[in-house]
């Protein structure tokens, strides 16, 4: 038979044509897994590419960017760096995120020296509009050049007025031209640097300096020289560092979505395994006959593997096309960040890459191939003489009852939960989840053999036959049981994790939003603030029992990581838990200790800070010693935040600006009345944002749900694939049991009774699968909560069970399994009893 490959082709085509429904289910399962993984990759890559290109266009031909805190650093650093022999050109920059009235997104405005910037980044030199040819327009303190993307976004044109907020007042800027940069994602405005410092209250301050180095300068050695020259809180970053920081912002979120997509693909691989295994069992006698007629074991192995590869290839090609469509839809409706909020304003387009498409298609083929390996190996190893006998279907499945492979996989998974992250990603945590799932599926034959063997005999004929069938054929029952286990455990694990996160998030909001009313100078950007006079007006407004003010700033501690937030607000050293969601106890510094700070969990993970430690941090251009007094939970800032008492911050930084105010109302004072009073007393009442705590909570929870929207979608797809597997498993079992149904019909059983028997079998398997899935789901959820999330996002949460959801889904899944068993048996029961039994004569 080795010399007849066309025969293998005929057998392969015949088998695929004979069971079109099963083949389509496998193809669709693989296609969905490939499509979701490909779509997530395309979407994230498009967003990162667009964002990185936009970021790179800001530095132009610069080799290094000297970057400081968002509040700025002393401009005296600029001439010192410009005079260095290694520097060919230096361009100082003032950078602000300007709040635009009636807009929820800020506009980036850069203040540049047009004469210096021309040597480093000519793309920032504006092109005056017709009628603005005077070179002095570059020095006009009211002139601004906007990029084409900004003009389109704001629906403005040269000659129009751009209104921005400064403090609680407004500043009118005249649009005098456009910028040469044409990147669609770059919403940017450029004005004279001196005008920007003056207009935005940043005299003597810079946010960055772009350096172009002399040819041949050793970058590494030059950065070492800069270390001794740069003030505290100011770092030198390369364009590659900036792109890495941009990527790091969303990396954990992207990887988690990729893993969820991979779960869908693995579920599809399991579905291929289940249907292929049951197909081999159903055709056991036919395959044994081929072996008896001379087909070699290798040829039979290739035949079964070819069936899986053919289905995987069809699913992979369909998945690539479907993934492209899904990615285009996600980019249009969910944005490049897939709801995560990492790339606001980015609307990239999807681009085809043949190599990436081939890689994802290969994943689909490999998944289907892996799903076919065990059934193919079993088919090729079977003894023809024994396999030709009727009733031998349970023999190959009996080998799966050994508990040792399952125990080994689960033990390895539990051991991996103790490993730390790899390059900031919970690689071992994901591996632990996979091993736990594989081990549990391998355990199913043993569980079925034990659980179904101890079931008491049914009282009626139908229940007796159903329970007897399950007890005598636990191997086949385990196939359907594994499908239910996979789908329900993944659903339960994700539901437990999301519920735990959401409840913990709500509890965190209760701690960080203690006041009844919150006032913000602007809802975006960093140009809105409350002056000392504004703060006095707020505190003195009738109806306010207490007012607390807060200031937020950003510093860059590590050029490889995104900035860290400074949060200055009133904190009682004796009771910091009143304003911070503390994790563990807080210490009280001694009299001679540096002032206390409280750091978020991310600071503990990324910067190795711990309570009682003395650290030096940059503040107002100087390294200031502090005492780490405690660790607090912060769900708003993934890469770290530092909380400090407002009085200490003002004393050490001399920064009096305030961005937010928390207000407690006096008794009998209505919120609407107080809001009206504040707007009447404060200047620029239309610019300030006033919300009560309930409104902020609702908005925050909507953002939370939006960020998990794609997660819910991927979870639902994985569950749907698992349910397809349940139906396919029961369908294959029913087809393999056609002779059994024929004998029962001869003995007097009606189709209705056989249907009831199948429905009861499905219900029993569903009940057992749900029970095992709940235990497995809880185990996976614990890994997600206590390993994956802390290592991915650097925050913790407490465990909360979604009992109502689980109580609603579990009976529905049991009912679905029962209906799937009943529906799948209808075709087998429709065959004539004589024809079904004749196969065994």
UniProtKB/TrEMBL annotation:
Transmembrane segments: 20-41, 259-281, 301-334, 354-377, 422-443, 449-468, 480-501, 709-730, 762-788, 800-822
Any GO BP: lipoprotein localization to outer membrane
Record domain ABC3 transporter permease C-terminal: where: 260-384, 717-830
Chief localization: membrane
Name this polypeptide is given: Putative ABC transport system permease protein
Family under the similarity heading: Belongs to the ABC-4 integral membrane protein family. LolC/E subfamily.
Species: Paralcaligenes ureilyticus
GO cellular component: plasma membrane protein complex
Sorted UniProt keywords: Cell membrane, Membrane, Transmembrane, Transmembrane helix
InterPro entries: ABC3_permease_C, Lipoprotein-release_system
UniProt keyword Membrane present: yes
Bilayer topology: Multi-pass membrane protein
Localization per Swiss-Prot or TrEMBL: Cell membrane
């Amino acid at each position: 038979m080795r010399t007849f490959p066309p025969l293998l082709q005929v057998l392969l085509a015949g088998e695929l044509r004979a069971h079109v429904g099963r083949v389509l289910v496998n193809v669709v399962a693989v296609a969905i897994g490939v499509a979701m993984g490909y779509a997530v990759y395309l979407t994230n890559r498009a967003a990162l590419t667009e964002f990185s290109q936009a970021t790179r266009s800001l530095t132009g031909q610069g080799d290094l960017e000297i970057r400081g805190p968002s509040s700025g650093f002393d401009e005296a650093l600029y001439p010192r760096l410009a005079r260095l022999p290694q520097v060919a050109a230096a361009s100082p920059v003032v950078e602000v995120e300007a709040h635009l009235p009636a807009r929820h997104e800020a506009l980036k405005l850069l203040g540049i020296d047009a004469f210096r910037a021309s040597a480093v980044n000519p793309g920032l030199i504006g092109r005056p509009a017709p009628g603005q040819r005077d070179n002095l327009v570059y020095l006009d303190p009211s002139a601004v050049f906007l990029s084409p993307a900004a003009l389109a976004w704001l629906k403005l044109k040269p000659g129009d007025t751009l209104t921005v907020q400064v403090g609680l007042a407004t500043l009118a800027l005249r649009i005098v031209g456009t910028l040469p940069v044409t990147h669609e994602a770059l919403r940017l405005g450029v004005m004279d640097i001196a005008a920007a410092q003056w207009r935005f209250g940043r005299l003597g301050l810079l946010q960055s300096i772009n350096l172009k180095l002399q040819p041949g300068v050793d970058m590494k050695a030059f950065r070492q020289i800069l270390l001794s020259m740069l003030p505290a809180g100011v770092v030198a970053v390369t364009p590659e560092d900036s792109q890495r920081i941009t990527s790091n912002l969303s990396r954990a979120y992207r990887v988690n979505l990729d893993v969820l997509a991979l779960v869908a693909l693995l579920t599809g691989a399991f579905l291929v395994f289940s249907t292929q295994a049951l197909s081999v069992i159903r055709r056991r006698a036919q395959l044994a006959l081929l072996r008896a007629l001379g087909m070699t074991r290798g040829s039979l192995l290739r035949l079964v593997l070819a069936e899986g590869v053919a289905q995987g290839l069809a699913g992979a090609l369909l998945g690539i096309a479907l993934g492209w469509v899904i990615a285009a839809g996600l980019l249009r409706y969910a944005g490049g960040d897939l709801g995560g909020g990492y790339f606001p304003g980015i609307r990239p387009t999807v681009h085809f890459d043949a190599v990436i498409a081939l890689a994802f298609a290969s994943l689909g083929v490999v998944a289907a191939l892996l799903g076919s390996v065990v059934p193919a190996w079993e088919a090729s190893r079977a003894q023809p003489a024994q396999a030709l006998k009727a009733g031998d279907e349970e023999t190959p499945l009996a080998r799966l009852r050994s508990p040792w492979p399952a125990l080994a996989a689960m033990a390895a998974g539990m051991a991996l939960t103790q490993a730390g992250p790899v390059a900031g990603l919970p690689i071992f945590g994901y591996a632990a989840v996979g091993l736990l799932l594989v081990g549990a599926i391998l355990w199913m034959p043993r569980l079925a053999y034990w659980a179904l063997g101890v079931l008491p005999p049914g009282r009626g004929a139908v229940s007796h036959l159903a329970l007897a069938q399950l007890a005598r054929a636990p191997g086949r029952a385990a196939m359907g049981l594994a499908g239910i286990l996979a789908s329900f455990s993944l659903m339960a694990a994700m539901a437990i994790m999301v519920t735990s996160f959401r409840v913990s998030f709500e509890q965190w909001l209760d701690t960080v939003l203690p006041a009844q009313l919150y006032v913000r100078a602007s809802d975006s950007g960093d140009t809105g603030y409350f002056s000392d006079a504004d703060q006095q007006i707020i505190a003195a407004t009738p109806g306010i029992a207490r007012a607390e003010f807060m200031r937020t700033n950003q510093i860059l501690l590590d050029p490889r990581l995104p900035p860290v937030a400074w949060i200055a607000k009133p904190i009682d050293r004796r009771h910091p838990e009143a304003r911070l969601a503390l994790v563990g106890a807080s210490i009280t510094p001694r009299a001679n200790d540096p002032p206390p700070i409280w750091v978020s969990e991310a600071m503990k993970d990324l910067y190795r800070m711990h309570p009682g430690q003395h650290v030096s941090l940059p503040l107002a251009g100087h390294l200031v010693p502090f005492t780490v007094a405690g660790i607090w939970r912060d769900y708003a800032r993934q890469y770290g935040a530092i909380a400090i008492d407002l009085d200490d911050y003002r004393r050490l930084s001399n920064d009096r600006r305030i961005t937010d105010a928390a207000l407690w109302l006096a008794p009998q004072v209505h919120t609407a009345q107080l809001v009206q009073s504040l707007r009447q007393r404060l200047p620029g009442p239309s610019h300030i944002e006033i919300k009560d705590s309930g409104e902020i909570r609702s908005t925050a929870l909507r953002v939370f749900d939006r960020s998990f929207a794609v997660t819910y979608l991927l979870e639902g797809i994985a569950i749907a694939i698992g349910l397809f597997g349940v139906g396919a498993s029961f369908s294959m079992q029913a087809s393999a049991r056609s002779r059994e149904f024929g004998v029962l019909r001869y003995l007097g059983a009606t189709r209705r009774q056989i249907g009831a028997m199948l429905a009861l079998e499905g219900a029993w398997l569903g009940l057992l699968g749900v029970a095992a899935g709940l235990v497995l789901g809880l185990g996976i959820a614990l890994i997600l909560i206590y390993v994956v999330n802390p290592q991915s996002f650097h925050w913790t949460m407490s465990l909360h069970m979604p009992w109502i959801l689980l109580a609603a889904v579990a009976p529905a899944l049991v009912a679905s399994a029962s209906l799937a068993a009943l529906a799948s048996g209808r075709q087998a029961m429709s065959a004539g009893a004589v024809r079904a039994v004749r196969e065994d004569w």
